[in-house]
Amino acid sequence: MAEYDNLQLQSNYQTNHKHKHNNNVSSIGRRSDDNVKMMALKCQRPTTIMSHHQLVNKCYTTICNDNNHNKFYRLPIRKFNFSCYNKSFMLALLLVLGLFFEMTSCEGFQLEGTENSYAQFRKWYSGLNGSLELEFKTEQPNGLVLYTDDGGTYDFFELKLVEGALRLRYNLGGGAQIITVGRDLHDGHWHKVQVLRNDEHTTLTVDGVSQSKASRGKEFQFGKFATNSDIFVGGMPTWYNAKLAMLALPSVIFEPRFRGSVRNLVYTDQPGVLPRRQEMRQPRDAKCGDSVCDQADMMPEKKVTRGLRNNVTDACERHDPCQHGGICISTDSGPLCECRNLEYEGTYCERDKAPSEATFRGTEFLSYDLGQTGGEPIVSAQDAISLYFRTRQPNGLLFFTGHGTDYLNLAIRDGGVSLTMGLANGKQEMHIKPARVRFDDHQWHKVTVHRRIQEISSITSFCRLVVVVDEVYTDHSHIAGKFTILSSSKVYVGGSVNPRALLGARVHNNFVGCLRKVEFSADTLRLNLIDLARTGSKLIQVVGRVEYNCPSGDPQDPVTFTTRDSHLVLPPWEVSKQGVISFKFRTNEPNGMIILATGTKPPRSDFFAVELLNGHIYVHIDLGSGASKVRASRRRVDDGVWHELILRRSGREGKVGVDGQYNDFKTPGDSTQLELDSPLYIGGIGPSYANVNVPPALWTGTLRQGYVGCLRDLVLSGKPVDIAAYARQQDTAAVKPSCHVQTVQCTPNPCHNGGVCSEGWNRPLCDCSATLYTGPTCGRESATLAFNGSQHLTIWTNGFANQGVRTQTEELVLRFKTSRPTGLLLLTSADTNSPDRLEIALVAGRVRANVRLGDREKNLLAGQGVLNDNNWHTVRFSRRASNLRLQVDGAIPVRGMLSETILGRHSTLEVRSLHLGGLFHAEEEIQMTATMPNFVGQLQGFVYNGHRYIDVVKSLGPELNAIPQTTFKLTARFVNVPPGSPYKVATFKSKHSYVGLAMLKAFDSVSIDFRFKTLEPNGILFFNGGKKNDFICIELVNGHIHYIFDMGDGMVTMRDKSKVHMNDNRWHSVSIRRPGPKTHSLIVDDSLETMVTSSNSMHLKLDGILYIGGVFKDMYAVLPVGIATRSGFEGCLASLDLGDLSPSLIDDAVVQSTLVINGCEGPTKCSQNACANHGTCVQQWNAYACECDMTSYTGPTCYDESVSYEFGAVVGLIQLSISTWKSARH
Question: Which Gene3D superfamilies does the UniProt record give (predicted)?
Fold first, then answer.
């Protein structure tokens, strides 16, 4: 047997031999039922003579690789008793093994990178001149390669991959040093690493490239060999989580684990011994410091628990069970799922993960201080803080990290996000607080802070700082100085013992509210601090009783109704025999419908309502046998402070009070049950086309005056209602889930053209009724109708369930201009059996209002002098039951009463149709007999009970039957009114510029008006994304306006049909409306396009901000495919009206741009001498270009001579070869 014992095995085999036998390697690697798989490998090391026993022992657990096919093979070589076989058999066996050695190379061991993956080796005796070598291969850019320390005191060596570079961090007692070598080392190829010590000098070499550093101090021994830890490769044992004090660098336990292969780990493992290849320690032999490791954690029976691959079969190729983006990892025990999406957990990432969140009440906080345990700080070239917060408090500490005099302090201050940073001698401060946006609105907000060190010279570096809130609001800055690294030895989350004592403090309060997913990352390290605290990590100190959850909903969360049409729809309120309702409200507007619920089962007419009327709270209740109206407040409550309403009812009796002052009431009739089966409307009843049964006694409902203000603490029959949750599910743009008081709105006066401003709830209210203009700030020209005496506008209102409209109050405004002293302005008519009517007419140059209810009639006459002077005059009329009021222009109103005894249903006016300018029969196109002649002149600004009928008709175009319950007939003609001067003008100086406004209010209806001027044919003007597939976009395509939207069931595109291109450097007007649930209109200058869709979706569910002038560059690639433009708008925008708002593109922008400026800066114009040598000047917006095609010159101004060829007497030829490509047929 000796001749076999001395068999020499060479490792430097020829590469072409390996390639030659690749196919054989693959076949040998396959398991066969007929053959016993005998596989061996040749270890890559210097030429060595080994016995067969040594060969088997050295390579028994090694995994080898077929480099060409990237396949791994397990080599379970059995320990044969060679003495049992004859020499012929042994010779044959070794020949087979030798053939295999020529085909494969030793690949070391493979680490899966899972949460338990690591390999453990004997201690490193580094001495003063020790070395450590290894080779690794991976495709992952980050991961812990190797770690060892002195048992938890000071000294350590940490070797890890950071973004594809290898970083050595070490400490020999004089302070940590960092060496970084290499780049893109995660390329799937082998890389050789050497760590070499030479007294105070330490060198890191990767693939022959070296970097060195010198340690400070006088002693350079690496710890004490007796107490030093073992070497850990690829990760750390999990038992260290409970024994962080045993680590000199505690943060190493949180480093991402290495995923790849390691081989040829060579170092000295005891004094007086040369470096040698190291074998993996078995769990029973492992040493942790100077003690035996926790065997329960090591699980000695199965090495697979340490994430080491033995089986070469790829389980993930056969079946990938991972869900929700989980990454499949093949292990010996089958596929393992790594849940990259942190929202999911479980064996296959199939289960929603409990959110990492905690509630703080001002006395609780989380922290760590590595300095107290003697541990080294966390250091990095870049770090990031990411967290979500929700609070009602305007001030509070969110996060602090620092080391020595360096710090980063993140807080919420005055409702904005504040950040201060100190680094070396430089300091920086930011405060993100966008216009009209607050972050103390008890909604979730995300904050991300990113710092990155960039070395610009040997003595100077930049630290670039970026702060992003809600992925929209951004600020950035930098600090220059003498620093090379970011350090963190202490962290506070949610507060500290004394927050005002922290460096950079701008707030003195701890945080009160909820925090979620508080993550601190430094290079490869990533700490989820709340998760660590919740799971009892020894790193985190928890102060106070922290609750690791946040309430999903809170009835105390307020909402703000921002417009007359904004509202919420709740399920029916079951309150048959008795019930209790309470809520708190806050507003400064005197009128608004707060709550409405009705019964829809005839013949009963049950309803319950609460309204704010003339500054007082009124409660309406009808049990089906008669209505009762109770004033609940004893003093005005439109004072901008919180008030509370409570109502209790049992049968017919009840009491209602505001702020603790109660009034008793009793409903008429015999009924004792309140049967409500309609939805419960909160804040209003929705857009003008909404088909809702509004009781005549509910005056604010009739006048379409929705409640504008704050509401909270709604309780129905003892059950709290989270109205903020309904707001988040429904109209999130118009119903804000917060309540804040903004500054005075009417100073300076926002109303244009003589409009009169009054203070609303966080909004200016502009009265445009005495002007030629309309819109939220009286900036847009009013639509005007011309009547010649035979023309009219008729509106048929069918009302709820085609029962017509019955009202106890009316309010109208109408402007007229005429030279005739007599003419019918407005007349209402009812059924043929009803004499009810309201007539407004011009009589002998004065305005007369005639009201008739049943057998009662009253005339009012107003207007001084002659009103038929061909000037514009304004008529205002209102009725409240029997009280009448008529006013012309600014004169003193004329008042009157129909009767002293009219009450309840006897004061109800029935209306089936309204006739404007003339009276015509509904069926036959003939004029009806009337004592009052038709009107001759112009009418505009007509508003009847909140309906702007002239504007609606203009937006409908020919689709006059497109609105449910309302039909129009128009024979009068619209007058082309020249546009006024543009207002709130802004210039977009580049196609890369854009601004962001608050989300567009377009849940039920759309109203967008603007003007633009440009020379560019293409560009995105407006874009607002939404939930799922919903979005809205306005773009300029080849000089024409495209309006694209998707309400969830398919994209719709509308285009203007104008004969001219809009990129002509002239102002053009655009109006977009949704006058009906399925009707959409686009008006560009005088071009009108309407579309009636078949969509079943009634709501446009937008989300995020409204981008104007373009979107950020990364967003163009993901815009819906129906949007043609992939660049921004370059030119001027002005006169922007968005529903009830007229925002400034500069002052009201929540995302601002320095390339968007006030005013309209015209284009840089072509001049006569702009282009030399007869070049043609082509006008662009902020520049011009010279076309030199028809000249012999080139260059930006046709000044440079082109390359030319001169043909003389000798024959010359220029030959151009053109390749012809033939398309292949498949």
Answer: 2.60.120.200, Laminin
- Per-residue CA distances from 158 to 112, 143, 147 (Å): 20, 11, 5
Cα(348)–Cα(327) distance, integer angstroms: 9
> Are 979 and 781 spatial neighbours (Cβ–Cβ below 8 Å)?
yes
Q: Are 801 and 929 contacting, i.e. CB atoms less than 8 angstroms apart?
A: no
Model confidence band, residue 613 (pLDDT cutoffs 50, 70, 90):
very high
**Does position 819 have pLDDT exceeding 60, yes or no?**
yes
Q: Are strands 63-66 and 71-74 parallel, antiparallel or unpaired?
A: antiparallel
Residue of 988, 824, 990 whose CA lies nearest to 919: 824
pLDDT attached to residue 787: 96
Q: What is the mean pLDDT of residues 1115-1121?
A: 93
How many Å separate Cα 615 from the centre of its chain? 39
- For residues 716 and 308, the model is more confident at 716
Q: Are 295 and 283 in contact (CB under 8 A)?
A: yes
Q: How many CB atoms lie within 10 A of CB 681?
A: 24
Distance CA 331, CA 309 (A): 6
Q: Can you list the pairs that 471-474 forms with residues at least 24 positions away whose Cβ atoms lie under 8 Å?
A: 471/446, 472/996, 472/1104, 472/1105, 472/1150, 472/1151, 473/417, 473/432, 473/434, 473/437, 473/1150, 473/1151, 474/432, 474/1151
Question: Edge-to-edge strands of the sheet including 873-880?
Answer: 894-897, 883-888, 873-880, 809-817, 936-944, 784-788, 973-975
Higher-scoring residue by pLDDT: 741, 307: 741
CA distance 276 to 290: 22
Using the structure block, give the residue that is written with the tokens 């005013």. 1159
pLDDT above 50 for 50: no
Closest C-alpha to 1133, from 1171, 1115, 1107: 1107
Q: Above pLDDT 70, what percent of the chain?
A: 84
In whole angstroms, what separates CA 219 from the centre of its chain? 55
Report CA 874 to chain centroid distance, whole Å: 46
Q: pLDDT confidence of 141, banded at 50, 70, 90?
A: very high
Cα dist from 929 to 793, 918, 933, 934, whole Å? 17, 11, 9, 11
Residue with tokens 């857009």: 687
Percentage of the chain lying above the pLDDT 90 cut = 57
Cα distance between residue 841 and residue 875, in whole Å? 10
Q: What is the pLDDT of residue 916?
A: 96
**b/e per residue, 734-768, with b = 16+ CB within 10 A?**
bbbbbbbeeeebeeeebbbbebebeebbbbbbbeb
DSSP states of 985-998 = -EEE-STT--EEES
What's the pLDDT tens digit per position in 432-471?
A: 998 878 899 888 899 999 999 888 777 788 889 999 999 8
Look at strands 287-288 and 291-292 and give their pairing: antiparallel
CA distance 57 to 279: 10
Compute φ and ψ for 452, nearest 5 degrees.
-145, 130
In whole angstroms, give the CA distance from residue 1003 to residue 733. 8
Q: Which residue has the tokens 């509401």?
A: 711
**Which of the residue ranges 120-134, 340-354, 824-838 would you say has the lowest mean pLDDT?**
340-354
pLDDT at 904 over 90: no
CA 40 to chain CA centroid, Å, is 57
Cα within 13 Å of Cα(562), Cβ side: 24
**Geometric angle at alpha carbon 492, from 491 and 498, rounded to 5°:** 125
Decide: 815 and 875 in contact? Cβ < 8 Å: yes
Instruction: Give the whole-angstrom CA distance, residue 451 versus residue 426.
Output: 14
Please state the pTM of the whole predicted model.
Answer: 0.73
The full DSSP string for 417-441 is EEEEEEETTEEEEEEE--TT--S-S
DSSP letter, residue 31: -
